[in-house]
């Protein structure tokens, strides 16, 4: 942000912007602090996926604690940072924003592996050391993207009061940074989301195909048993005059014994068919519940991708276009350009509501933290009801 930004706003506009940004910073800290506290208080939340939510909440929390509070006095009220504070602010701001983006990619990758390689992925990635290594790896990768470039480049190209990295005037470096910070993450999350939707469609069609033969086989077996029973139930005609009394009695006894055995077999077969049908129904219900969970996961990933693209695409695209098309490789300072810059911070506010705060496990943890439980029933009401 150049120093010309402070001259385009009146004093009342700057005060209003400072107030709104302070509210945004406070909301970012509160929302992400709730996720962190819930994770620390409730031990049932400590499994692999929620550790990645914790990593995202930590990076977004410091965006509201460090990046925005230092931006307000420097850009809106023309406060001279100095060399050390400027370098610290640039490193922190770019590191935290990039870490937040890469945490979103890590969460999407975790969901992708949970759908594609559920059993093997759970067995290989349940250790706490492996999870922590993945969390630390996100921070290290985010630092390697921007840290060396900020430390090497000259951050004071336009005077001491203008605290911005020098690579903003080098178009090819800016294109590479935007590619690593925005294009690679958004295409990765889009690929994971498309794969999940495709696997859900295949699983849904396969379950429907498997369910129809089971029902036809059960009905055909029942029909066969009824036909066999009907065949046995009709005795052959006998000539009463030519048969003797003993033969008639023996035939009746043999017929009754065969009839009883056939009825026992048919009863056992019907019970087996009933058990098979109940097992198939239970299996279908389990498959249906798994599909519902996966569809809910896919919808949340789609919302996450849409919000991430909406918050990061404007600034990245505008910056790339300006750096390539303009002779000075700089975007003109305007309120539209500033809004694209502020949208990146808005993503840190939305993230805790997209994932953790909407999950039932985190909601139960929040209710436990704030003691929002149902009040106990008074003893006298219990005695009256008894």
What this model shows, in words?
- It is a single chain.
- The chain has 386 residues and is an all-alpha fold.
- 81% of the residues lie in helices and 0% in strands.
- It has a domain at 5-172 and 306-370: Up-down Bundle (Rhopdopsin 7-helix transmembrane proteins), CATH 1.20.1070.
- α3 (48-76) runs parallel beside α6 (128-152) and α7 packs antiparallel against α8 (245-325).
Order of helices and strands: HHHHHHHHHHH
Portion in beta strands: under 5%
Rounded Rg: 34 Å
Give the CATH topology of the domain at 5-172 and 306-370.
Rhopdopsin 7-helix transmembrane proteins
Helix content: over 70%
Largest sheet: none
Cα-to-Cα separation, first versus last residue? 72 Å
Strand count: 0
CATH superfamily (homologous) name of the domain at 5-172 and 306-370: Rhodopsin 7-helix transmembrane proteins
The tally of helices reads 11
Low-confidence stretches: 1-7, 156-160, 225-237, 377-386
What spatial form do the alpha-carbon principal axes imply? elongated
User: What is the level-2 CATH architecture name of the domain at 5-172 and 306-370?
Assistant: Up-down Bundle
CATH class category name of the domain at 5-172 and 306-370: Mainly Alpha
Question: Would you tell me the overall average pLDDT?
Answer: 74
Global structural class: mainly alpha
């Amino acid at each position: 942000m150049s120093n010309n930004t402070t001259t385009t706003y009146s004093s009342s506009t700057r005060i209003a912007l400072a107030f709104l940004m302070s509210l945004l910073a406070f909301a970012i800290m509160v929302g992400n602090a709730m996720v962190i506290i819930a994770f620390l208080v409730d031990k049932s939340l400590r499994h692999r996926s929620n550790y990645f939510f914790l990593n995202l909440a930590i990076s977004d929390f410091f965006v509201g604690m460090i990046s925005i509070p230092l931006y307000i006095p420097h850009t809106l009220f023309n406060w001279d940072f100095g060399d050390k504070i400027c370098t610290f602010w640039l490193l922190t701001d770019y590191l935290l924003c990039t870490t937040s983006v890469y945490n979103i990619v890590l969460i999407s990758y975790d969901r992708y592996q949970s759908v594609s390689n559920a059993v093997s992925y759970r067995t290989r990635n349940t250790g706490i050391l492996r999870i922590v290594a993945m969390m630390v790896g996100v921070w290290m990768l985010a630092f390697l993207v921007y840290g060396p470039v900020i430390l090497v480049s000259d951050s004071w190209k336009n005077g001491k009061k203008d605290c911005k990295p020098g690579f903003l005037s080098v178009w090819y470096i800016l294109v590479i940074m935007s590619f690593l910070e925005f294009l690679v993450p958004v295409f990765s999350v889009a690929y994971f989301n498309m794969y999940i939707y495709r696997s859900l469609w295949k699983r849904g069609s396969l379950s429907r195909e498997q369910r129809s033969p089971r029902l036809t086989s059960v009905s055909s077996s029942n029909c066969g048993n009824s036909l066999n029973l009907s065949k046995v139930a009709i005795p052959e005609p006998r000539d009463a005059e030519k048969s003797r009394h003993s033969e008639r009695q023996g035939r009746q006894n043999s017929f009754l014994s065969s009839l009883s055995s056939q009825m026992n077999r048919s009863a056992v077969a019907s019970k087996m068919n009933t058990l098979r049908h109940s097992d198939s129904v239970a299996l279908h219900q389990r498959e249906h519940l798994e599909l519902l969970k996966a569809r809910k996961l896919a919808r949340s990933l789609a919302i996450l991708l849409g919000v991430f693209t909406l918050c990061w695409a404007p600034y990245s695209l505008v910056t790339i276009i300006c750096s390539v098309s303009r002779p000075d490789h700089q975007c003109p300072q305007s309120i539209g350009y500033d809004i694209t810059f502020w949208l990146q911070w808005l993503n840190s506010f939305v993230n805790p509501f997209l994932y953790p705060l909407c999950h039932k496990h985190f909601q139960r943890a929040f209710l436990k933290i704030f003691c929002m439980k149902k009040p106990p029933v008074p003893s006298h009401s219990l005695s009256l009801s008894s």
